[in-house]
Write a structure and sequence with these properties.
This protein is of the alpha/beta class and 517 residues long. The chain folds into 3 domains: 187 residues, 3-Layer(aba) Sandwich (Rossmann fold); 188 residues, HUPs (Rossmann fold, 3-Layer(aba) Sandwich); 102 residues, GMP Synthetase, Chain A, domain 3, CATH 3.30.300.10. Helices cover 32% and strands 24% of the residues. Strands 2-1-3-4-9-8-7-5-6 form a 9-stranded mixed β-sheet, with helices on both faces. Strands 12-11-10-13-14 form a 5-stranded parallel β-sheet, with helices on both faces. Strands 15, 16, 17 and 18 form a 4-stranded mixed β-sheet that branches. Helix 13 runs antiparallel to helix 14. The radius of gyration is 25 Å and the shape is globular.
Length: 517
């Protein structure tokens, strides 16, 4: 699909773990942006027609032999450029300034003093102290011709610099992180005052543009929608239904890896309430047979993805004009699955990205591919979906298949299903569900000795994972009350046969991922 906003910012990725966070912060200012790799040819950048460019941070030094370096012409396009950390150092390096290892590396909080109240620091006041977050081992020693200092810190005399006449700006700190409290103001100044963007990136504008593009792309072709009942696929279905009406055919696959009561819930909401054409396919045996004996998580994901596609291709034969498969792929899925937009490491494949077979009969349409999760929720509200659907917690495409660690059997899935149902009941009744981004149970193939009714037991271990997050890119474990944790454990052990030990996961992302597999 073509870019979905007339005004757009290009973020060039040099491998920073904060690159996606830059994109989030730009979009919070209601300005559309995309992330592209540093290898993007200059002619492609021109074709993108950005109103401004942001050079991300990165883990390397610009003077290293294999350092990522973009085309120098990026600085001569006549549009404003903001370099962040490595992006600043690269700008200086390309313009014949000097970057060198710092005598003292700087990681963590620092205080800047604004020495030039330029547009970048508009509203801050000259000599104003600014708390920022530093993360660098190199520093700018000599500025290129035409540059001046905007702000400095004790360890970084050139903490913010600019060649105002050429529209080139750079900061040594990270304005995109929460530890830089006024970072949003700095980015807003760059976007609005320097780049001349307007805050026009809204969900209503996205809906209008997407509907136009979907209709142009599809014409009279029909679409199968992989509807799971989760937020992402529900919003995709609503958007496509608004765009193409009865050209949409929703397929819900009961793959045997769903939560308790999920199939009947989806059928009630979408088939009866919204009046969408919905086909429910019972494919539990097919999936479980294919997963028999498979314990490797990547193999699980790929098998589940392949079986999904197989089911959809079979169903597509019932619709003579059906040439597309719609999926609720989001930007974080793409970022974590396949390094297509930059040098960031592949973490794990998602069934609807890295798990698809190389050849399939259906073409893909993924209208949410450039959106973050919170943007998808806003889109759902704009489309009129009810709150209880829009605010549903994320549920992975591979379902319980990646929460049932080890062998996947009907018996183990039933144990996990019942335990998770109890967890959800208690979270809802206590009011704690709304305090978490995601909360779920994981069944481990680890047995331990227990005592129940004066008898020895030797049963499996269940882990409860509850996290807080804004967009799923980073997460922290939820500080749930001890009394609630005790209730989880007590009910699960007493009511679910096959579990005699309950654990609580207190790891964050990173270094852990949200799901266990």
């Amino acid at each position: 699909m073509e870019p979905i906003s007339e005004e757009r910012i290009l973020i060039i990725d040099f491998g920073s773990q904060y690159t996606q966070l830059i994109a989030r912060r730009v979009r919070e200012q209601h300005v559309y942006c995309e992330i592209h790799p540093f290898t993007t040819p200059l002619n492609k950048i021109r074709e993108f027609q950005p109103k401004g460019i942001i050079l991300s941070g990165g883990p390397q030094g610009v003077y290293e032999p294999d350092a990522p370096i973009c085309d120098r012409g990026v600085l001569d396009l006549g549009v404003p450029v903001l370099g962040i950390c490595y992006g600043l150092q690269l700008m200086v390096h390309l313009l014949d300034g000097k970057v060198a290892p710092s005598a003292r590396r700087e990681y963590g909080r620092a205080s800047l003093s604004v020495v030039d109240d330029s547009d970048l620091f508009s509203g801050f006041g000259k000599n104003a102290p600014v708390d920022v977050w530093m993360s660098h081992g190199d520093k700018v020693d000599d500025l290129p011709r035409g540059f001046s200092v905007l702000a400095s810190s004790e360890n970084s005399p050139n903490a913010a610099v600019a060649d105002v006449n050429r529209g080139l700006y750079g900061v040594q700190f990270h304005p995109e992180v929460a530890h830089t409290p006024r970072g949003g103001e700095i980015l807003a100044n760059f976007l609005m005052s320097i780049c001349g963007c307007s805050p026009s990136w809204t969900m209503s504008s996205f809906v209008d543009r997407s509907i136009e593009q979907i209709r142009t792309q599809l014409g009279q072709e029909h679409v199968l929608c992989a509807l799971s009942g989760g937020v992402d696929s529900s919003v995709v279905a609503a958007l496509l239904h608004k765009a193409i009406g009865d050209q949409l055919h929703c397929i819900f696959v009961d793959n045997g890896l769903l939560r308790k009561g999920e199939a009947s819930y989806v059928e009630e909401v979408f088939g009866k309430h919204f009046g969408m054409e919905l086909t429910v396919v019972d494919a539990a045996k097919r999936f479980l047979d294919a997963l028999d004996g498979v314990t490797d998580p990547e193999k699980k994901r790929k098998i589940i993805g392949q079986e999904f596609i197989g089911v959809f291709e079979q169903q597509s034969e019932k619709f003579s004009r059906c040439g597309y498969l719609a999926q609720g792929t989001l930007y974080p899925d793409v970022i974590e699955s396949v390094s297509v937009r930059g040098p960031s490491a592949t973490i794990k494949s998602h069934h609807n990205v890295g798990g698809l077979p190389e050849k399939m009969d259906l073409k893909l349409i993924e209208p949410l591919r450039e959106l973050f999760k919170d943007e998808v929720r806003l889109l759902g509200q704009t489309l009129g979906l009810p709150r209880h659907i829009v605010q549903r917690q994320p549920f992975p495409g591979p379902g319980l298949g990646i929460r049932c660690v080890g062998d996947i059997t009907e018996e183990r899935l039933e144990v996990l299903r019942e335990a998770d149902y109890i967890l959800q009941e208690e979270l809802i009744s206590s009011g704690a569900l709304s305090q978490t981004w995601q909360a779920f149970a994981v069944l481990l193939p680890v047995k331990s000795v227990g005592v129940m009714g004066d008898e020895r037991t030797y049963e499996e271990t269940l882990v409860i994972r509850a996290i807080t997050s804004q967009d799923g890119m980073t997460a922290d474990w939820a500080r749930l009350p001890y009394e609630l944790l005790a209730k989880f454990s007590n009910r699960i052990i007493n009511e679910v046969t096959g579990v005699n030990r309950v654990l609580y996961d207190i790891s964050s992302k990173p270094p852990s991922t949200i799901e266990w597999e």
